[in-house]
Design brief:
This protein is of the alpha+beta class. The protein is about 20% helix and about 30% strand. The two termini are about 15 Å apart.
Length: about 80
Amino acid sequence: MTYLRLEVVGPRMITVVGGVDLVGDDIEPRIAVRLREIEARLTSSPAVVHSVLSLSAPDEPSLTPEGSQPDRDEFR
């Protein structure tokens, strides 16, 4: 992820907004489907009332510490 913002909207209720840095070279329709699947997993939590994920620009720094690789299966 390039950025992640959690907004408290009520007692035990949050909105998740994030810029996602996906690994690989997938085509846009599949990326869109993956993002919607991740959003669905996030909103399956009773505390998450809304989630919005979008792609990060290639020049944006990643939140992943330099040198470490994110778990590719984390959101599959």
